[in-house]
Amino acid sequence: MLHSLPHQTLSYAAVQAEWTNTLDRIQQRCLVQRAAEVVRPDKFAYITLDHDHEHMVADIERILFQNLLLRPLHRIVDRGTIEFQADWLWHWRQSVPWHCERSSSVNRLFPDAPERMYIYRYNLLLVE
Prior knowledge:
Elements: H1 12-27, E1 32-35, E2 45-50, H2 57-66, E3 70-78, E4 81-88, E5 98-102, E6 116-122
Antiparallel strand pairs: 1-2, 2-4, 3-4, 3-6, 5-6
């Protein structure tokens, strides 16, 4: 059964509250080095952890995907850190299955290229 979600644009306060809750939940599990603290439509959401917390990646991903006002995009491993990047959403999204793929597009010839990058893919079925 398909349910449609309301398409009204949410306020900054609503998106900020969800993001703050997400950050709090992650900070209860591990030390966050850096994170976007304020929701801005022209910027992406990010959270950077020390590489020592690599064993927490599945936990962090679960928390990020539970925020239905967030669309996780990438996980970047580089120089002893793990960074998660996402877009803020201004409409509620549905919870859908997802998977993570290692990107083969990382070009190590560029000096600032990350060591590894993973892309989050959503398992969607198009219906008419």
